[in-house]
Amino acid sequence: MAIQVQIPQNTTLSFKTDLKGNIVWVNDDFVKLIGFDRSELLGHSIKKVQHPQTPVSVSKKISKTLSFNEPWNGILKNQTKSGDYFWANATVTPYYDSKGSSVGYMYVERSASENQIKKAETFYLNPNLNESGFTLNPKKLVYKFKIKTKLLFVSGLMASMMIVLGINLILIKKVEYEDAFNRLKGSEFNLSLTNLMQLTAKHRGLMARVLSGDPTAKEGSLQIENQLDSTFKNFLNLNEEEGKHFRVYELSKETYNDWNHLKEVNPGLTPKESYLAHVSLIKKMLNVNSEVGESSGLFLDPDKDTYFMIDVSLSKLPYLAEKLGQLRATGLAYVGKGANAEESEKNLLQEIMGANIGYFESISISITFIAKFNSDSKAIIEAYKHAEADFPLLHKLIQDKIIKEKIPTAKPLEYYNATTNLIDQIFNVNQMISRQLAEKFKARADHAKNYATIMTIVTLTILVFLIILQYLIIQSIMSVIQDSTNIISQIVRGSGELKENLDYGINDEIGGLLKWMGVFILNITEIVFILRQVSGELSAKSKDAANLVRNYSITTQDQAASTEETSAATEELAASVENVFLSISTQADHLKEIEKVTSDFKMAMSDVANAMLGMTNLTEEFYKQANDGMLTTKNTADSIHIVNQKAELIDEVVNIINDISDRTNLLALNAAIEAARAGDLGRGFAVVAQEIGKLAEQTAHNTRNIQSLTTDTKSAIKTSVGMMMNTEESFRELLNNITKIQETAKLVRSAQDKQTEDTNRIVESVHKINENSLHILNAASQEKIAVEEISKSIETIATGTQVIADNSLVLLETAKDIEVTGEHLQTAVETYKY
């Protein structure tokens, strides 16, 4: 029975297929989980890893989404070699070669949530009843908004990211300031406690002498008590400020009360009781010091220049001084007993000396690192080296005059001075380190505070600059697009003038497009200007020709009527020769005038023909330029599409960055575990691991923002492609209008040809009539023409006159057609204003 397996957390399964769906690459995590060998997967179909229950609609949805060069995201069910299965939150994207051509698809799969798996199981069981909803297609959502809205969204997102980044940096510096301030106060506590421990140690030694019967130490002990009281006042003031914050308020109060109690009862104690009371007091001081080091974060400070100082000042030097104090007290007690000294006391003295040797060796190593990372610590190094050089002298004194002798030969005062001198040197070194730590943390706190202030000012300045810049960019883009769109739409609608300027002095792609659109409009302006002139002249001349033909038609009709009357009155011809002669003379003059008018009309028609030929040539040139503009727009859209394909490569880089971020998180977790195992020595390393984890989280967050920005950028590019397509469609409509103008010009030219043919016929008829009139006139003048010939001539004239009248009617109709065509052409041209 097949069981469900889980994709391990922080694991990414990925593989590639070619365009046919054959696997060409798999990563190690996928091979490990799927159970197949790499050789069993490469070259095989993706169906080998798909579960047989995968609905066909899922595969179709993936193919359809990828065909638009868009990513697909959803839940897929895969099967392993053993027959088990697992659910994966999968993202499928095309990937491309160096030339930008798609060569296959990239599958990236990660663990799915329980809610996603439940929905996927329901869909897989009822693929026909449930809607997949797997496709990640933001295109429709983005297309709902205007360019200005999308630009404002992007600018708002950038401003938000800038604000978040600035606040993050400020908060980081705020944390650094607080940490530095806490450590500053901690170092001040440390310095105060160091002074207290030094004075307490001195008081312990002097009181040991006083209680042992040495009156010379009485005055010194009183002076130390006064110094302790003064130092405790400063310590209590510091405790009032930060004691509760560092959780040492009550312990510090208790330490002060113990000192007051010890000061009161000390004169009545034995040397041993006084020693033990002082030891108890110093231990409480050491406990306060350790607690302050923990609470203030001193022990967690990761910087090399302060880490070893803190370690030496809080964890080593105070304990070395206390051990030296124990060495002093034990040695004085042993020397004071003389011959009564016990062997166990000598062994204890040797044991304390060995512990001191260990402390010196450990501190010497730390002092080496302090010298390495702090160039300003020469005084500290010299002071410690001086103490380190005095310790062998003390060791020699103890060995030669105490340890090796059956009865100690060392003088108590000699021994006291040697140990006390070394203790004071150790405390002096610790005070110097504490002061330098306080200075460093004060400088660090001041730097963090100043940096946060500067970052606030810089962030606000950059934010204001970005807002102004984004506003100007959006306004410049939107104003150009809106103005250009309004101008072109107004030109198309006839409410705008062709002389409008689209050159805004912009040097980007939009500016280049607008410049070529301006050139295109100039070409249209020239053509419209010529068409307007031609249409105006054509309309005017057509009207004149129509008037002439109309008058001529009336004259010919009258002439036809006269000719009929003349035919009816042939019997009176002989008596009216003189009247006929005059009438024929008048008719000859009219015919000459008509012949001249028809000749002028023929020349006018020739001019119209030449103008129409020029217009045809210009419309053909304009058609070619419009077609070139459409091709340029299409090439621009193709170039933007290629840029969109290049932008898809960012997704793969983002996936790689996500993988690196996840592995960095895992590395940070392992480092934190190892640091925890190391205990106190791994505290600094734990902070580094924590910072690495934060860096990985910030990287993942920024990567998601980059992916979101990349998706918005690709949507904006696709919107630009849509605008290019709309521009191309406008070019197509313009080409259709030019074609209509060409067809109109052809009709005008055809009508003009017909009119020219009819005019030629009229001219020939008029010429024949003119010749006949001359014959009649010659016959009448000679008075030798018979009545029959006159009758025939009149009949010929009547026939020719009727033909002329009929032809004049045809010419009148043609002139009217040309006049209407000219008016239509003029109306179409007047749509474009200039």
Automatic annotation (TrEMBL):
Residues 534-798 form the Methyl-accepting transducer domain. The chain crosses the membrane at residues 151-172, 451-474. Residues 15-69 form the PAS domain. SUPFAM superfamilies: Methyl-accepting chemotaxis protein (MCP) signaling domain (SSF58104), PYP-like sensor domain (PAS domain) (SSF55785). InterPro entries: MCPsignal_dom, PAS, PAS-like_dom_sf. GO terms for cellular component: membrane. GO terms for biological process: signal transduction. Pfam families: MCPsignal, PAS_9. CDD domains: PAS. Keywords: Membrane, Transducer, Transmembrane, Transmembrane helix. PANTHER family: LYSOZYME-LIKE PROTEIN-RELATED, METHYL-ACCEPTING CHEMOTAXIS PROTEIN MCPB. This is PAS domain S-box protein. It comes from Leptospira perdikensis.
